[in-house]
Queue: 2 jobs
Job 1
Amino acid sequence: MSNSLRIAVITGASSGIGGEFVRQIDCEEHYDEIWVIARRKDRLEALQETVQTMLRVMPLDLTDKDAIKQYGAALAETRPVIGLLINAAGFGKIGKTEDMSLEECDNMIDLNCRAAIDMTQASLPYMDTGSRIMEICSTAAFQPFQYLNIYAATKAFLLRYSRALRWELIPRGIIVTAVCPYWVKDTEFIGTAKKTKDSSYIKSFPLSSKMKSVVAISLHDSRMGCAVSTPSPVSTLHRFFGKVFPDSALMSIWEGLRRV
Ligand SMILES: NC(=O)c1ccc[n+]([C@@H]2O[C@H](COP(=O)([O-])OP(=O)(O)OC[C@H]3O[C@@H](n4cnc5c(N)ncnc54)[C@H](OP(=O)(O)O)[C@@H]3O)[C@@H](O)[C@H]2O)c1
């Protein structure tokens, strides 16, 4: 595999955390190409103006199973070595669970869970010793969250999946890191999450992080081989509380916090 093209693959690269990963990886790591995946082709193409590394733009809707087939076909044709896979595509919806449409529920599960797993499965045959996987989860994975219910459940799923996969891949020398950010305010995530029948169930997003620091810390953690990256003091504290307090206690605290 030594003469193969060495690439990084980043989903959700058309905005927010995914786009910031592309920019920081361009400066700090060396790949022949970065493959960038999201639905908005124009945004992916515009990213090329901000980085030196050659981008391969793949405009795909990852909730569509055919998208994974197209990604797999591109891999089979190019036969690269994937040095880094980052599954950053994801979205959440704030509101009462019974108010969510079936489409919102299914798309959240399809993108945050199925697509992340399918992307990982499709990529694994092309990974080598030293390759890394970063699954972008959330602090929402650390406890059940009423009024962010389905999203939090999808991220809990992804966190569990990432942790077990890490152990399975130790013999191959592939590192898996589950990245668990707290609210990040300078991406499109919160705006998208609020577009629901009634998003007033979560009133504010105090102590939010910024994507630059979330990406810098989580990339560092991935290079250090961490199993879980909590890229802010709030997310680190939340992880600790998630281990020492029962879910019911954390949900009671959240019941107060979400109203403030
Ligand atoms: N911001 C936060 O508060 C926060 C906190 C914890 C974890 N996270 C996680 O961080 C990740 C990145 O979120 P972000 O904050 O950067 O939000 P964002 O700015 O909304 O970015 C989401 C990305 O996902 C892509 N995407 C959405 N639906 C897709 C689909 N069907 N197929 C392919 N790509 C799709 C979007 O691109 P297109 O619209 O072009 O498809 C976009 O590039 C997500 O997994 C999110 O759950 C965010």
Note: Residues 11-18, 38-40, 43, 61-63, 88-92, 111, 136, 138, 181, 183-184, 187-190, 192 surround NAP (CB under 6 Å).
Job 2
Amino acid sequence: MSRPLKQLWSALEQVPDLAGVPSEWRSLLGGDYEAVARFLLPTKRIAGSVRCTAPGWTCIHEIRKFRGEYLEVCPDGCKPTTRSRDEVVVHRLDVVGFAREIAESLDLEALPAEAVPNMAGVWRIGEFAPSAGYRYAVCLAFTGEPDVLRSVVDGMAARGEPFVLIAPTRSAFGHAAADLLKRTGSLFLSLDELIGDGDGRLSLLDGHSAAGVFAEFRAAHVPEPEAEDGTAFFPTPAGARWEHVSIRFIDRHSVYINVQGVTGKYHCAQMGMARKNNAKPTVQWDLLEAFAEGHGRLDWRNSKASRKNQKRKENLAADLQRFFRIDGDPFALEGDGWRARFAVAIRE
Ligand SMILES: [Zn+2]
């Protein structure tokens, strides 16, 4: 169960510098205050002035230090009030903690939130990584100004990569920003529509799932399992390494693959290792089979080993890197030959 937050999102677009004294935060956040109080951390700064929080009043009160006490004084005649230190200390939104919970509720790879250089109020909070080799920057912008948000979209679009931009509400997301975003194949998310308070943690509102939120974006950028040229797209989990890959031959032309629970049966042609003219396996495929026969090893004593294999092994490494989109060499030098960093087995 996740409870919608009614005032938080627009408040975050209104508070300059995401900072204020507790009474200002309370009055802006209303019933949402308790749900996010853990993110409002005291700074070392004492406020010089505070907004009057009496309903209907807009006066600004000066904070004076007087005989070890803090006094809130109104130029327009509100009654002076004594305040404790904590009441006049500026509290700022802990963007790192706040962004981490947002990123986790959206199943992103969270990064410690970092201010984006030259873009005021914009934080890089993580990456959307639907598959190995596919990562997209996710940024959070706190502005309520359409012009500012448009220039943020402008700046990010200039990098030429699709991205995900998150804002508290849609209020600043105008037509110009929407057009630009669409042209770069990027995604805009509005937190008030997605995130609520799930028992002391920010979490997705009921009826939403991270997969659903990113479904369209993912479909637009991550290839379908079968491409037109006959090669297949293997949905390697993001972060997988060669050690996580297992390849087992089923017959002369096909293998069964398992990478961290993502599995499938693939023909040599689907893995880009069949000859174009007759769909027969390439020499790289034969070499993969030789590795399987050698329980992942191939050395000069093996009858299939030859000087030509150096080049073939390099080509096989390239074929495998293309198919799985995992960085690094899938083979290691060992003794008189090579050892596959992945598990490879021959048919039984
Ligand atoms: Zn006043």
Note: The two ends are 50 Å apart (CA to CA).
